[in-house]
Specification:
Layout: H1 2-20, H2 26-32, E1 36-41, H3 43-48, H4 50-59, E2 62-65, H5 71-74, H6 84-95, E3 99-107, H7 113-116, H8 122-139, E4 146-151, H9 166-171, H10 175-186, E5 191-196, H11 204-219, E6 225-228, E7 231-233, H12 240-251, E8 255-266, H13 271-290, E9 294-299, H14 309-312, E10 316-317, H15 330-338, E11 353-356, E12 361-364, E13 373-379, E14 387-392, E15 396-399, E16 408-416, E17 419-420, E18 427-429, E19 435-441, E20 444-448, E21 452-462, E22 469-474, E23 480-485, E24 488-489, E25 493-500, E26 507-517, E27 520-531, E28 535-541, E29 544-548, E30 552-562, E31 569-574, E32 580-585, E33 588-589, E34 593-600, E35 607-617, E36 620-631, E37 640-647, E38 654-662, E39 666-676, E40 683-688, E41 694-700, E42 704-711, E43 720-729, E44 742-749, E45 752-759
Parallel strand pairs: 1-2, 1-9, 2-3, 3-4, 4-5, 5-6, 6-8, 7-8, 8-9, 20-27, 29-36
Antiparallel strand pairs: 8-10, 11-12, 12-15, 13-14, 13-16, 16-17, 16-18, 19-21, 21-25, 22-24, 22-26, 23-25, 26-27, 28-30, 30-34, 31-33, 31-35, 32-34, 35-36, 37-38, 38-43, 39-42, 39-44, 40-43, 41-42, 44-45
Bound molecules: (3S,4R)-3-hydroxy-2-oxopiperidin-4-yl beta-D-xylopyranoside (XIL).
(3S,4R)-3-hydroxy-2-oxopiperidin-4-yl beta-D-xylopyranoside is lined by residues 66-67, 151, 229, 260, 308.
């Protein structure tokens, strides 16, 4: 006996555990009751909004394409099929262990222009219909459990067939039976449905649908069921007429599926209307549970965010079981509990996060399936004890009025009519006064005149400070401007650019960066140094030099570098007198000095000239001038070259000539040639190539002939070459010279007198 009582206790315990483990999703609850519950899929959010497909996978065990399997979508051109969306939908369903309804093969709406405008014969239209059905149904053979083969073939007004349908017009009423035959041929195992709206209860249209399908059954057409679209207007309740209708279809051996349910509400929606709507959905679930031939409920979408209702029925909306934010509505809970699910408390909420602000903490968490509300609880020590601070229906809460600097510990639990879940994991948060600080990196900046530099400004926000911070700079030197990019930000960084004009004040200053926002002002400083632009100057010491012919003189060149100019500077000289060269040691330098040495050849032009020294480097060119005076004091020739020559090519006379080249101006000139009177030699003439300003004379003695050429007083000779002074002798065949024949040339150039002598 004692043993039996223990067994009984164990049995009761097991039962209660079963209750706790009650299904929390529609699909689990429906599966437990042998139902399919599904939704029409809009491909756009299906592909782009993760929560959309997540909710589908979690809540439903059958899917239908809202548009993707319609004729125009799948068969856009006569020889083109597009399976992309349909394939994706079927693959998703299979991956999530869901069934698929195919919607729809033959319908007067959403058929392509190539078909309606194609001028096809009746036989061609039949062939196109057959090809379409064979291709589409064949592709998903064994994978799509049921097809809406023919959709909305019955007229709204008279209970007759819709005669304005393309298919009816081009084929005749037998298009319906044909479509079923073709579909059966393509997939003998698929359940084939006739689908329509406003045929769920009693009335002319329901009767017409019944008559249509009973006719098909009697003809042996392969039809398995009737789809009731179930587009309803709130409030809607299942009536006896619905049950009677389902039962008469059952007598034909036909199934019924609820294929497109929604219950549209006249906007704006009230809580009372949502509760009424819940009754409609609950009724339909209970109807399916009670009717042996009704085992599938599909809603036309599932979230009010994506529903055809607002677009097709102006002023209506909120027709589905999840709201715009994917939160379950009363209609969802009603379906779940009608399916026997959700009788325990909701699962523990997950994903609790806390963000501390100024005297407040923002909390958010993931929705718990089947929850109608949440309790937010707080403690000042980790682990509790917790005090409930709010009961909310959304999945977020902002706890205000908190003491800054105190750490609070939060948990959240989920509630519904069946009770409260355990607490979630705990999260801490410490509210802080709204504040911000500024910092600059780098904190010191060196820029040249004419250039700019940047520093990154960081805004460190605390206590939920989220205001825009406007930035400005003060304490700038004259000629320096500051820009911030951005100038104002709700973010955490900006870039400060400081730009110095060419004339900006140089030196070091402290720049203050000020941020203002949310009633707060914060500053940071950075040290700015403005340097001159890179440059150099050149000077020479001494800056005037005398160079003797045949000698050298040097001057020291100094480079003064500013603005960090570090380039190499190369030297060159121009404007030097003829015969004067300049050399530099070193010829280029990254240092500050070099030596220029001027060397005058013995023939260098005498007199003054300005030699320009040029230094080039870093794209800059600077010059300094050295006043040069080339002097004759060095034993030179004053730029005058004297060349003696002998012309002996005449049988009648010989002559000895002096040729004179001068680079400077000659102001006095005396050329004297003395020839020895050897046997037979006599004076035979003299000439010059200069002209009348040369006075000529000669003196003949027993021993010598002296030829004299003299520049007349007050005359001068400019620069010239090969001026010839010739001493001609008779005495045929007697060749001078002898080393005894001599010349003496005395001249004045550059104010200096020179004498050159020699012999022939
Ligand atoms: C609707 C879709 O929801 C819309 O997105 C589309 O623009 C038009 O068709 N009966 C049916 C469905 O059988 O195919 C219809 O779907 C809604 C009415």
């Amino acid at each position: 006996m004692l043993h039996r009582i223990n067994w009984l206790a164990l049995l009761l315990l097991t039962l209660s555990l079963t209750v706790v483990a009650e299904a929390q999703t529609l699909r689990d609850a429906a599966a437990a009751r042998g139902l399919r519950v599904g939704a029409a899929v809009n491909m756009n959010p299906f592909r782009n909004e993760p929560i959309y497909s997540q909710t589908l996978g979690r809540e439903f065990n059958i899917l239908v394409a809202e548009n993707a399997m319609k004729f125009d979508a799948m068969h856009p051109a006569q020889n083109t099929f597009n399976f992309t969306d349909a394939d994706a939908l079927v693959a998703f369903a299979e991956a999530n262990n869901m069934a698929v309804r195919g919607h729809t093969l033959v319908w007067h709406s959403q058929i392509p222009g190539w078909l309606t405008g194609g001028n096809f014969t009746r036989d061609q239209v039949i062939a196109i219909m057959r090809d379409h059905i064979m291709t589409v149904v064949g592709r998903y053979r064994g994978r799509i459990a049921a097809w809406d083969v023919v959709n909305e073939a019955v007229s709204d007004n008279n209970g007759q067939l819709r005669t304005d349908s393309f298919w009816h017009q081009r084929i005749g009423p037998e298009y319906i039976a044909m479509a079923f035959q073709f579909a059966h041929e393509a997939d003998p195992d698929a359940k084939l449905y006739y689908n329509d709206y406003s045929a769920e209860g009693s009335g002319a249209k329901s009767d017409a649908v019944f008559n249509l399908v009973s006719g098909l059954v009697n003809q042996g057409v392969p039809i398995n069921g009737v789809g009731w679209q179930m587009h309803q207007i709130n409030p809607f309740r299942i009536q006896q007429a619905n049950r009677t209708n389902a039962q008469r279809l059952a007598t034909l051996g036909l199934e019924v599926s609820i294929t497109e349910m929604d219950v549209r509400i006249s906007l704006p929606t009230t809580q009372q209307e949502l509760d009424e709507q819940a009754l409609a959905y609950r009724d339909v679930v209970e109807f399916c549970l009670s009717q042996p031939n009704v085992k599938t409920i599909v809603t036309w979408g599932f979230t009010d965010k994506f529903s055809w209702i607002p677009g097709f029925f102006s002023g209506f909306g909120d027709a589905l079981i999840f709201d715009m934010n994917y939160q379950p509505k009363p209609a969802y809970s009603a379906m779940l509990s009608a399916l026997g699910g959700g009788t325990g408390p909701p699962p523990v909420p997950t994903g609790l996060t806390a963000t501390a602000g100024n005297a407040q903490v923002q909390l958010s968490w993931n929705a718990s399936t089947g929850a109608t509300g949440y309790n937010v609880k707080r403690a000042t020590t980790s682990g509790g004890p917790y005090t409930t601070v709010a009961a909310v229906t959304s999945t977020s809460f902002t706890n205000t009025g908190l003491t800054n600097g105190t750490t609070f510990f939060y948990v959240v639990s989920a509630t519904n009519a069946n009770g409260e879940s355990a607490n979630s994991g705990e999260v801490p948060a410490t509210p802080l006064a709204a504040n911000f600080s500024l910092s600059a990196n780098p904190t010191s900046l060196t820029i040249n005149r004419g250039a700019s530099g940047t520093s990154a400004i960081t805004i460190t926000r605390s206590g939920g400070f989220s205001s825009a911070v406007a930035l400005s700079a003060g304490g700038l030197p004259s000629g320096v401007t500051a820009t911030f990019n951005p100038a104002s930000t709700t973010g955490t960084s900006s870039t400060l650019t400081l730009t110095a004009s060419a004339a900006a004040t140089t030196g070091m200053v402290s720049v203050t960066v000020t941020g203002t926002g949310g009633g707060l002002t914060r500053t940071t400083t950075l040290v700015l140094t403005v340097n001159p632009a890179p440059d150099f100057t050149l000077s020479a010491n001494p800056s005037s030099l005398t160079v003797n012919q045949g000698a050298s003189a040097a001057s020291t060149l100094s480079i003064t570098r500013v603005g960090g100019f570090a380039g190499s500077v190369a030297f060159s000289a121009t404007g030097l007198p003829s015969g004067v060269t300049a050399s530099f040691n070193p010829p280029s330098t990254t240092g500050t000095s070099s030596t220029v040495t001027f060397t005058a050849s013995s023939a260098a032009t005498l007199g003054s000239a300005n030699g320009a020294i040029t230094a080039t480097g870093g794209g800059l060119t600077r010059t300094t001038v050295i006043a040069l005076n080339v002097s004759g004091g060095g034993g030179g020739t004053g730029g005058v070259t004297i060349t003696p020559a002998i012309n002996a090519n005449s049988p009648w006379f010989n002559e000895e000539v002096i040729r004179l080249n001068n680079t400077g101006t000659i102001t006095a000139l005396s050329v004297t040639i003395v020839i020895q009177r050897t046997t037979g030699v006599g004076f035979n003439g003299q000439y010059n190539t200069v002209g009348g300003q040369i006075l000529q004379s000669n003196t003949v003695t027993a021993a010598t002939i002296t030829y004299q050429f003299t520049l007349a007083a007050g005359q001068s000779l400019g620069m010239g070459a090969d001026r010839t002074f010739a001493a001609q002798t008779s005495g045929a065949g007697t060749i001078h010279p002898t080393s005894g024949d001599t010349y003496t040339v005395t001249y004045t150039t550059g104010g200096v007198s020179f004498t050159q002598t020699g012999h022939f």
